[in-house]
Amino acid sequence: MEGLIPEDQIRLLQDEATLGQCGVEAVSTLSTLEVASRMFGGKVHGSLTRARKVRGQIPKVAKQEKKKMGRAKKRMKYNQCFVNVVPASGKKKGPNANS
């Protein structure tokens, strides 16, 4: 509970007793206390039986083609540089040439 002074951080136990009254030794300011409690509120997204219904309502989007990786990328680069070379007039063009 950050941002609260220690006096405001006192929480009562189920029988409205504090830890000091229960015989717990003095807790220092740097102690860590693990607390398990129930939170108020309901479910966030409903039951799992409705999941199929929600999935069916979402429109299907076609998968996009990804860049090639690994062996396929090296093969494509080899073909681009050595196999599919069209002889240009005079000067050799660089790999980033647009024309």
UniProtKB/TrEMBL annotation:
Keyword annotations from UniProtKB, A to Z: Ribonucleoprotein, Ribosomal protein
Keyword field contains Ribonucleoprotein: yes
UniProt-listed Pfam families: Ribosomal_S30
One BP term from GO: translation
Matches recorded under InterPro entries: Ribosomal_eS30
A GO cellular-component term linked to this record: cytosolic small ribosomal subunit
GO MF term list: structural constituent of ribosome
Signal sequence region: none
PANTHER family per the UniProt record, alphabetical: 40S RIBOSOMAL PROTEIN S30-RELATED, 40S RIBOSOMAL PROTEIN S30/UBIQUITIN-LIKE PROTEIN FUBI
Full protein name: 40S ribosomal protein S30
